[in-house]
Structure formats: structure tokens, C-alpha cells
Design a protein that fits this description.
The chain is an alpha/beta fold and about 350 residues long. The protein is built from 17 helices and 8 strands. It folds into 3 domains: about 140 residues, 3-Layer(aba) Sandwich (Rossmann fold); about 60 residues, Helicase, Ruva Protein, domain 3 (Orthogonal Bundle), CATH 1.10.8; about 140 residues, Zinc Finger, Delta Prime, domain 3 (Up-down Bundle). The protein is globular, with a radius of gyration of 22 Å. The protein starts with a strand and ends with a helix.
Length: about 350
């Protein structure tokens, strides 16, 4: 088995070396999972617009048809050539695991398999299978850190032949992270807005990234962490009226809990108080957000933070698989976390 770190995979993708025939992408950043799967699919050379060469499957497809994966891998396309099987929404389905076990022993040379999964624990069956099979290469996809976001920003600005001031860069980066696809969309939106500008300045970022809907999303995130139920419902009404996807609130809350989880680990290891930890590990945090995060660090136990991270990741995956229930499942979870924040704050 090979588990590639982010920079190793990016280096492989940019090189002329052949990709592994079976690739598993997993992690909390579903946007990055999707982006890397897309880039890998392109690199296989299989024509992605050819329905006879590319087979799109979901975990549900495999569950309802036990031998589907093996049958698809061994079938010959109508016009021959190489074939790509692209599986989305995978977890630990027995049918997927059984199929991969068989194919790892005898995978046709003309078949590629790309698997997209959500965050998998180390003891998850799919991840353990990848660890024991040398023919599966897994790539963890974690939320972008500042270095990765800077690289993404520079990459997109170079495409648009734009420059950005250091102050504007700082403001923009504070609004990104948590989901690669959302970050890319925000940067591209800003670049299109500034096409005729020499340099992107602070007011450009504020105008595009910090619009009214963005403020409502931020209000909703703050309300969740503060335990303010009425504030959350008010912000969600504004978000719904502006046709802003509630996914952005889930992403925002996920990003904040990821920050809390990271800082909490440093606090526990270094025996630090929340103010000192924030001063050391969250220097770029907006002053309005600082007291909210500090209170969360003081009240939320580490185990509860990890539980909410898992629930948020599961909710994001569920909402993407079924858009018709996105608002209801998102609001239900956001209210649940808000009430928990309120209970924890009351005990303080």
C-alpha cells in the first residue's frame, strides 16, 4: 500500500510518471477530494465525455448490485480502449471492499478505478484495506493550511494575470479554507471581478467576498458557536432570502471547529490557557471572532469537538448526495450544535 502526502501527490500529478491504477481519495475536505479525483481522471487519458469509456458509480449502486464493480472492471468497452470506473460517496460498503479485494489480485491493464470517500478513521474498513493492498494508493485530503491556500491563490491569479496586495491577501485568506472547491470558487469570483484592475486591493475583497450574504453566513456561524438560537434562525432566514447555499454555513462551522480542534490539541500538549493559545496559533483571527473562539476553547471538550466534526462532515456528504434535503438536514444539525453551545456556555 502507498499513502501519499498532499505534496507528494501534487508532485506526482505534475510529473510525467504514470498514476496508480486504483486511487482512493478521502478526508474532511470534500472539495479537495473532488478536485484531486477530477485531475486524476483527466491524467488517465480516458476521454471523460465518452459514456462507453467512463462508468460513474455511487456506493448505493454497488450495494444494490453485489458484483457490479468486478463486472464493470472486466467488461470491454464498445469501442475498446482504456476504461475508468469512478466511484463517489464511498465509505465501508461490503460490496466495494469485496470487489476491490478481487480486483487487487487481477485488475485488467486497461482499467482505472478512482474512489471518492469522506473522512475515514484509521480503523475504517476501506482505509485498512488500502493499507494491506499494494495495488491501492490512498491520498488523504485535509483542509488547506495557509501555505496551501497561498499556493492556490497564486495559481489562480497567475491564470488571470493578476496581482494582489499583501493586505488584500491577508483578508482573503482569512475567509478561505475548509473546502477546496469553495475556496477556488471564491478566488475565481474575485479574479473575474478584478479583471481590469492592476492590483487587487482590500476594497475589492470586501466588495466580493464580504457581501451581504457573506455577512449573513458569518452571523450564522457566530450564532452557532455562541449558542444563540434566535440569531441563527434570523441569519438563516436572510441566507435563504438571498438564495445563498446553506452549505456555506456548514462549511464555515466546520472550518471553525477544525481550528478549535487544532488549537485545543496545542493547548493540551503545552498546558496553555485559551488566550495564550490564540495569541500563538491564531494571530490572523479577526478581532470580532476572537472572543467567540476563546469561549469555545474554554467550554467545548476535545471529545465533543471531534464528535461535531464527524457530524458536520457526514452532513456535508449527505447534503451533496441528495440536494433536495440539504436545507433540512443542515438546519437540524446547526440547531443541534447551537443548543449544545448554549448548554456548555451556561455551565461556565
Amino acid at each position: 500500500m502507498t499513502e501519499l502526502k498532499s505534496h507528494d501527490f501534487d508532485r506526482l500529478l505534475a510529473s510525467s510518471a504514470s498514476l496508480p491504477r486504483i486511487l482512493l481519495f478521502f478526508g474532511p475536505d470534500l472539495g479537495l477530494v473532488s478536485e484531486r479525483a477530477q485531475k486524476s481522471a483527466t491524467r488517465t487519458g480516458v476521454p471523460l465525455d465518452d459514456p462507453f469509456a467512463v462508468v460513474h458509480l455511487t456506493a448505493n449502486d454497488l450495494t444494490s448490485d453485489t458484483g457490479r464493480l468486478v463486472d464493470e472492471a472486466n467488461s470491454i468497452g464498445l469501442f475498446g480502449g482504456e476504461k475508468l470506473i469512478w466511484i463517489k460517496g464511498a465509505a465501508n460498503e461490503k460490496q466495494l471492499l469485496d470487489g476491490l479485494n478481487i480486483l487487487c489480485e487481477d485488475l485488467p491493464n486497461s482499467t482505472w478505478i478512482i474512489i471518492e470517500a469522506a473522512d475515514l478513521k484509521k480503523n475504517a474498513a476501506l482505509r485498512k484495506l488500502a493499507a494491506t493492498q499494494r495495488n491501492i494508493t490512498s491520498v488523504p485530503c485535509y483542509a488547506d493550511d495557509t501555505k496551501a491556500l497561498n499556493t492556490l491563490l497564486d495559481e489562480i491569479l497567475q491564470q488571470f494575470q493578476l496581482r494582489i496586495s499583501s493586505a488584500a491577501r491577508s483578508i482573503l485568506l482569512s475567509q478561505l479554507g475548509g473546502d477546496r472547491k469553495a475556496s477556488r470558487n471564491e478566488i475565481e469570483k474575485l479574479a473575474l471581478y478584478c479583471l481590469n484592475e492592476d492590483v487587487i486591493e482590500e476594497h475589492h475583497v470586501t466588495a466580493i467576498i464580504g457581501d451581504a450574504s457573506g455577512l449573513s453566513v458569518d452571523d450564522a456561524v457566530n450564532a452557532v458557536l455562541s449558542g444563540d438560537k434566535s440569531g441563527l434562525l434570523h441569519a438563516v432566514r436572510k441566507i435563504s432570502a438571498s438564495k445563498t447555499p446553506i452549505f456555506l454555513v456548514l462549511q464555515g462551522v466546520l472550518r471553525q471547529f477544525q481550528m478549535i480542534d487544532s488549537i485545543r490539541a496545542e493547548m493540551d500538549e503545552g498546558h496553555m490557557a485559551p488566550p495564550a493559545a490564540l495569541a500563538k496559533y491564531a494571530r490572523g483571527l479577526h478581532f470580532k471572532k476572537r472572543p467567540i473562539i476563546e469561549r469555545a476553547l474554554s467550554t467545548w471538550p476535545a471529545a465533543s469537538v471531534k464528535r461535531e466534526l464527524e457530524r458536520l462532515q457526514s452532513c456535508i456528504l449527505q447534503s451533496r448526495q441528495n440536494a433536495s434535503i440539504e436545507e433540512s438536514v443542515a438546519l437540524q444539525l446547526l440547531l443541534s450544535i447551537t443548543l449544545q453551545s448554549a448548554r456548555l456556555n451556561a455551565r461556565r
